[in-house]
TrEMBL record:
Domain of life: Eukaryota
F-box domain mapped to chain residues: 8-53
Species name: Brassica napus (Rape)
Gene3D superfamilies: 1.20.1280.50
PANTHER family found in the cross-reference section: BNAA05G37150D PROTEIN-RELATED, F-BOX DOMAIN-CONTAINING PROTEIN
SMART domains: FBOX (SM00256)
Source taxonomy: Eukaryota, Viridiplantae, Streptophyta, Embryophyta, Tracheophyta
InterPro entries: F-box-assoc_dom_typ3 (IPR013187), F-box-assoc_interact_dom (IPR017451), F-box-like_dom_sf (IPR036047), F-box_dom (IPR001810)
NCBIfam families according to UniProt: F_box_assoc_1 (TIGR01640)
Protein name according to UniProt: (rape) hypothetical protein
């Protein structure tokens, strides 16, 4: 049977539930072509119900996201990798400073620019958000209570005694009522030292209280209330540098891990946010090469990325329970200008289409 749509076109008379079920099985880039089928399909694909359903199903099969930055072109390249490490989607964005993916979206900014970029590797779309100042650090997260994405921008300067002073903190709500960056107060003096990870509506990142004694802490930024909090680390645990320390996910929790020049990695897992309780987990990687721990995936396997690479870039999967490992080598594919790579393990496909003006 065929039925007339409101725009005068004809479409197959399929139950809406069946249409939704079919669409959720398609890759996001295919959905971008199907919005032209009818007004009904357009409203379904752009609807919140469909987007949430698609993300829920995508979360059961997360992908790896490989980031490569090229100094020559000053652009970042993102490649979504399937479980077999085959290229699925790719997107090229300006900028080198990035935040880990949040519900399929990524955020990056160039160190010499006041332009913040939001991108969706699954659809190949991106949009730029103007900023009124040079950004020293950027963080990206999702508030599940209010269903809002937010960008946190921070600017710092060094005092005469070497201590770090936070000059300005600003927040931008994507799709919110506000159409500009809002200045928010942070009463804690610190300087960010790691990437930020969004977990249950809070963006966590490692930091130093100042550059003099380099006391290490973990900062939590509550996206709903837009408030900062400090979480103390165990006394003998330090954030070494932004190149050697990182926050990762370890079996559903936040963990701090430092680069190790031996096979042994110590992960400090945050067990209780309110009580500042941490547990130490030591892992011996089954390789003598230099690798960086990127956390766990849904199978419970630990993921390690190659720290130094030549013609190949290697990824190591390690199951600590069964003491089994598998290594996969990725070819550079003629990419000789990339100055660095970084792997994210918590990327999911998102059907979200970024409007020309995300803020409305």
């Amino acid at each position: 049977m065929r039925s007339k749509e409101g725009d005068g076109t004809e479409s197959l008379s399929l139950p809406v539930d069946l249409i939704i079920e079919i669409l959720t099985k398609l890759p996001p880039r295919s959905l971008s072509r199907l919005i032209c089928v009818s007004k009904l399909w357009l409203s379904i694909i752009h609807g919140k119900y469909f987007n949430d359903l698609y993300l829920t199903r995508s979360s059961t099969r997360p992908r790896l996201l490989l980031h490569r930055y090229c100094h020559d072109t000053r652009r970042s390249h993102y490649s979504s990798l399937s479980s077999r490490l085959s290229l699925v989607d790719s997107i090229t964005l300006p900028g080198c400073q990035i935040s880990p993916p949040v519900r399929g979206l990524i955020c990056c900014v160039d160190h010499d620019s006041s332009i913040v970029v939001i991108g969706n590797p699954s659809t190949g779309q991106f949009l730029t958000l103007t900023h009124d100042a040079i950004t020293d650090k950027i963080f990206f997260g999702y508030d599940p209570v209010n269903d809002l994405y937010k960008v946190l921008s921070m600017n710092f300067f060094h005092d005469i005694d070497g201590s770090v002073v936070l000059e300005k903190s600003q927040v931008l709500t994507l799709g919110g009522a506000q159409e500009s960056w809002r200045v928010i107060e942070c009463k804690y003096p610190y300087y960010p030292g790691t990437q930020g990870i969004c977990h249950n509506g809070v963006v966590y990142y490692g930091a130093w209280s100042n550059l003099t004694d380099r006391r290490s802490v973990v900062v939590g930024f509550d996206l709903r209330y837009e408030e900062f909090s400090l979480i103390t680390l165990p006394e003998d645990v330090q954030i070494v540098s932004r190149f050697e320390s990182d926050l990762v996910r370890y079996n559903g929790k936040i963990a701090l891990v430092n680069v190790s020049l031996t096979r042994k990695f110590d992960l400090w897992v945050l067990m209780d946010v309110k009580k500042h309780e941490w547990s130490k987990y030591s892992v011996v990687a089954p390789t003598c090469d230099f690798f960086r721990c990127r956390g766990t995936i849904e199978t419970g396997e630990l993921i390690f990325e190659q720290l130094y690479f030549g013609d190949q870039f290697s990824i190591l999967y390690y199951d600590p329970k069964q003491d089994k490992a598998r290594r996969v080598d990725l070819e550079r594919s003629g990419d000789t200008t990339s100055s660095g790579r970084k792997l994210f393990v918590d990327h999911v496909e998102s059907p979200m289409f970024l409007p020309r003006k995300f803020i409305h």
